[in-house]
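Worked example 3. Consider a protein that binds zinc ion.
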Amino acid sequence: MIIHQNFTGGNIRIEKQEGNTFYLNNQLRDTTEDWFYWAFCIEAAGGKTVTFKFPPVRLGYYGPAVSHDLKKWDWLGKGDDENSFTYTFGENENKVYFAHSMLYHPDRFYEFAKRNGIEIKELCKSGKGRSVPYITIGNGKNIVLLTARHHACESTGSYVLEGVLQELITRPLEDSSVICVPFVDFDGVIEGDQGKSRFPYDHNRDYNIGQESIYPEIKAIRNIADKGILYGFDFHSPWHFNGGNDNVFIVEKRPHKKAEYDRFGMILESLITEKSMKYSLKNNVPPNQGWNSSKAPCFGCYMNDIGKAKIAFTLETAYFGTEDNIFTQDRAVELGKCFALAIKKYDKDTI
Ligand SMILES: [Zn+2]
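Given these inputs, the predicted complex is written out as structure tokens:
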């Protein structure tokens, strides 16, 4: 048996092994507070029954996400207790991935782009020299800026983003150009970093007005926004779980935009389909409530204040959801399609 993190998004620490029981934890790397993301591959465990134990706040409501190909993910189901799970490997089941949540592999995005005839372009070189991808759709005058993974581990947002793009490619918003940066913290996504609360600050805190960005990706995104945008939407995952973190919600940043957040939220709620993750306007987080400081720099603030967007915000999509609203890959993509329809209705109603 071997447990490793040698794949895109891998992140694991083996604390100790006792027979067929592994004590595991994640690697925080340069994250300055406790965080919960992990993902590992186990090989050569065919025919064995193995137990995996974690510290608290590492496993979600439905056990780990499990995959055999890093493409299709399922919930294994509740484990022995809330901090451990046991898996019996089939005789020939010799490569299995387990993760905190359902990973979104960048290859899935490249395949999506190819299927839709969209060219992948280079936004910039990342801090570690990788080519950071971005795409554009259409050539209208109004810029719709779409981003995800300002925080590397937040894969639920990537599924929603894919759904948004699919709808806007099939039935575009009039007079618009979509500019999309699907993996803002690209190095972090590839290397399996938490990405949240990086030292000295993370990508979403690199929008200090009047101060140069430290991350090349944010510098490039700001250059786009500085010319003015119509809309800016950024897709995230919230904290691990509990309370509001189990929902889909809009993070409101500017009190004077309250009516616009409400109008968008009402439209989105009305367009949610049976197949979609649920969204309710009442779950939005108003500015300066709890953790939501309107003073901290972020995408939503920058796009509002400098990009002069009609509306700009972050949409958070739970990692696990709730019994009546469980996260799946398909339901998150469908949420994205509903979200794109909401953009179009919001836009039409404005004129
Ligand atoms: Zn985030």
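Take a moment to read the result before moving on. The longest helix spans residues 329-350. The chain has a mean pLDDT of 97.
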